[in-house]
Task: structure prediction
Amino acid sequence: MDEDFDDVAPSAPAAPVDGGLSAAILLMLLEDGDSSAVLQHLDPAEVKSLGKGMFEASCATEHDVEGALDLFVRNNRDLSSLAVGAPVRIRGMMNLALGDSKTNRIWPEIAPAKAAAPAMEALQWLDIATISALVASEHPQLAAIILSALPAESAAEAVAGLDEATQADLLFRTATLGPVPAAAIADIEAILAAYTTRVDSASINLGGHGDVAKIVNNLARPQAEKLLKTIRKKDRRLADAIEEGMFIFADLGELDTKSLGAVMRNVDADRLALAIKGADAALGERILGTLSARAAQTISDEIAEMGPVSRADVEEAQKAVIAVARAMAASGEIMLGKQANDYV
Result:
């Protein structure tokens, strides 16, 4: 009997799961109210990351779920219950004992840096365009305080559109801030409240040439061409933008191997290498697979030696490849998108 048990293989451990996916899976396993309570304590970047992760988690396998639970148990085995919600609990106790006013005065001295300026948390939820407008329109000293409360990347984006003199002045003020008076924080709090209300009541952007491109792309080719011709009479540039959005570089993956190879043979090697550099790896491999072994190796070597390239250069190269594909489609050499489905 003992020998029979010895022959039984131990169950395989759950497959390791990425930390971000693990967190998203755990949130999906909770009741909606509990998940919402967790999200309320996270910063905007964490909420966005988890939001994307939850879409991925919706396709998780049983092994993924087991792996997420195992990771959670391992990471939290030594976590004290005192740590759960500590900042909120401590703040609540201080408010009850001292009142809001006194707590606000001592809070920056006792709280960790991340929790030291609760008044600035609203900044994290504003889009860069709004922050940039805020920085440009408010008093430079207040703008400097706002910049200091932002992540470096967001602060850089916020000042990028300002003139050089204003940028230098704001960065100088930010670098020499020192202790910030409570009155200044109160002023910023009021300003942020006004901006947040304005953002919450703002209209939602809908439509645009990108949405129209998707609609036209799903019409029969003759009908699509007729509509574009009509739109072009009204606004040539808008028609060009719609047409550009109807077939993008990623859509090359939908072409059959023969058509894809035909397009690639009409593209300059340097431009093709740059276009592939910024493409999805699978699409890049498929494109290289349509070329001769020598040509594919040459382009692969060029990509490897290229180093970092600007997104603008990559997009320009990809648009050039798409222009070749459109020209070939117009001459009947290949068929793109919906056009290919119009034939049997």
